Amino acid sequence: MPHEAAKRIRNVALVGHRGSGKTSTCEAILFQAGAIQRLGSVADGTTVSDSAPDEKSREMSISASLSSFHWQDRKVNLLDTPGEPSFVADALSALSVSDGAVFVVNGVMGVEVGTSRLWERASELGLARLLFVNMLDRERADFFRALEGLKGAFGQHVVATEIPIGAEHEIRGVIDLIDMKAYEYEGAGRDNCREVPIPDDLADRAQEYREKLMDEVAEVSDALMERYLEGEEISHDEVVQALKTGVTGGQLFPVTCGVATRNLAVNRLLDAFVEDLPSPAKRGALELGETILEPREDRDMVAYVFKTLADPFAGRINLFRVHQGVMKADSHVFNVTRAAKERIGTLIVPQGKEQDHASEFGPGDIGAVAKLKETRAGDVLSSRDEVVAIPAPKLPAPVMAFAMEPKAKGDEEKVATALHRLQEEDPTIDFHRDSQTGEQILAGLSQIHVEVIVDRMRERFGAEVSLKPPRVPYLETIRHSAKGHGRHKKQTGGRGQFGDCHIEIEPLPHGAGFEFVNAIKGGVIPQGFIPAVEKGIVESMARGIVAGYPVKDLRVRLFDGSFHAVDSSEMAFKTAGSLAFKAAAEQAGPVLLEPIMTVTVTVPEDYVGDVIGDLNSRRGRPLGMEPKGSVTEVKAEVPMSEMLSYAPDLRAITGGQGDYSMELARYDELPAHLADKVIAASSEQEAVRA
Ligand SMILES: Nc1nc2c(ncn2[C@@H]2O[C@H](COP(=O)(O)OP(=O)(O)OP(=O)(O)O)[C@@H](O)[C@H]2O)c(=O)[nH]1
Ligand SMILES: [Mg+2]
Predict the structure, then answer these.
(1) C-alpha of residue 23 to centroid of ligand 1, in Å
(2) In the 3-class helix/strand/coil scheme, how is 446-515 assigned residue by residue?
(3) Which residues of the chain carry a pLDDT beneath 70?
């Protein structure tokens, strides 16, 4: 049976800015669908999807979590994702295995940075999207303002399919613009919804928004548009069908609204995504160059592992999506990414707070498996031993780096094990020994990220570390081109060593990385030694020119050299390459580059002046500010070195009422007087080591 089961599946990711109410919406959906019997809350730490101890204590999602349930004869795999940018890896991997996304939007704040960032990603993936304007019970929440903001940011195809009845604490229900029916909600129970007449004072408004909706729906097909323009009646079924087609094709983005924590209008969101978002069958084949994965049962099984959970007790759990064929319990599969065999034991369906076992997962389905030995997120499992590469989402680089030390002597091993396990779970953690200082470095996307890692090490693995102040990941580059000559010659009795090369280096635009051009003519350096020259150069670049930081963004042209028939070796040419690079780099105007962050601060209006003043004193460049309901969002670009201990300072300035996030914008040249300090600090360290 090719497509039948895959038609009944909905893979949906809940995404959005931090704190917009995704987890609360997930909880209400599970409750409404009957998957759980009590509506938990984030504040009480009783939701299904924020079940980790640190998710409860921090009242935020840290990992993506999967809940599967049945609704209207469909199987829904719902992925609740974290909004905090530090944990964006999980939001991105959830999107990569979903066929549709629900954007949860804070009804007070409207469009936020996180909304836009994830929207871009969903566009790249061509995902069908619905929007849910949540928190309409809050003071200063405004559905219509949020809707305008969404249209402004994401275009006119963002269109309301319902509008609220009442506002702020008086919100009572919604008007359905397709049926032109009104519904009110009482209490948070499962059958809290009843139909009421459209309130008189909202009749005009409902009509106005219905027309806007119809304008958009008619655009889905030319035939429909023609009839619409001629004033012909379009039937209810036609509207529903066109809406579905528009959503699946990414032409229409319906906006619904409600209050997650009161289970208000969540039943309608649930119906909307089961009805309107496409199934894996409808989404169709995944084309990967030559390889085409079709959601059919009569194919070799191919599944993509998108998330690994490292539980110190239950062991490793992998979440996967089956792209074709059937994943069976008690079977043998190949991990084609790692060229390893794996035995699949029990298959798991996470259902609300419980776990169920499954005998198989068909094409398009999402499930979990415990106790695989080698498999990690990003791997492909297959019933056939043939490599299939499914690209992983592109993740941000860990820029917030701290030197760390185990609190107890002799705990190095324990710390390393804990970090390796956590790294399986979160690929944006970096952990290495600094070749310059010999220190252990722990790096993540932000301070919160690193704090969460340190807490998890302690709580899950009993490994305690202390962190030294974070280190700024400076880079080095060159300003102009220069030539350099490297010659390595040793004659000591027997066979000597000889390598000789001439190179020219020139700057490349920021972000271009490294290019090596082999311009050797007439075999003055034999082909076999050229990779050795490059290797010597690359190693030298990693050690830096002025202050020991990695050198980036340059092109090296190897254009001349000589060799000796007996004495030349790869070793000798590597050394020559390294010498030539040093000689050239010193003449090429080497400079230090510092990371510049885009900082977004949200504060009550009264503090805006102080916050901007403070950011200015940190060499910040204001980008603008925007009122967002009861608070103002201030944006600025600030060098990372000035933001290393911002959290306590912001708390002091705003009496704890400010919030901020930041991410890497680019690297800029470090001003000379500051560069001198960094260079001095680096030579001090060198002196200590010598
Ligand atoms: N008044 C009100 N509060 C809500 C609503 N939805 C969520 N909240 C509250 O807002 C806070 C954040 O909600 P969450 O559900 O954790 O938001 P989230 O989007 O999952 O947050 P992250 O996972 O950290 O991105 C919690 O305190 C919720 O109780 C709502 O509709 N109305
Ligand atoms: Mg959450």
Answers:
(1) 7
(2) CHHHHHHHHHHHHHHHCCCEEEEEEECCCEEEECCCEEEEEEEEECCCCCCEEEEEEEEEEECCCCCCEE
(3) 1-3, 312, 435-436, 687-690
- Ligand 1 center from residue 353 Cα (angstroms): 19
CA of 59 to the centre of ligand 1 (A): 9
364-380 pLDDT per residue, tens: 999 999 999 999 999 99
- Choosing from 23, 67, 90, 137 the residue with most ligand 1 atoms within 8 A of its CB, the one to mutate for a pocket test is 23
What pLDDT is recorded for position 664? 86
Q: What is the pTM of this model?
A: 0.85
Residues contacting ligand 1 via CB (< 6 Å): 16, 18-24, 41-43, 59-61, 82-84, 104, 134-135, 137-138, 259-261
- Spatial separation of the C-alpha atoms in residues 44 and 42, rounded to whole Å: 5
First to last CA, the chain: 70
Residues 22 and 30 sit within 8 Å (Cβ to Cβ): no
Ligand 1: nearest atom to the Cα of 25 = 15
Cα of 23 vs centre of ligand 2, distance in Å, is 4
Question: Candidates 261, 262, 446: which one to mutate for ligand 1, based on the most atoms within 8 Å of Cβ?
Answer: 261
Cα-flanking dihedrals φ and ψ of residue 421, to 5°?
A: -65, -45
Which residue carries 């722990």 as its tokens? 442
Instruction: Answer left, alpha or beta for residue 621, where phi above 0 means left and psi between -120 and 50 means alpha.
Output: beta
Distance of CA 124 to the CA centre of its chain: 13
Q: What is the mean pLDDT of the chain?
A: 93
H-state helical runs in 156-234? 203-218, 222-229
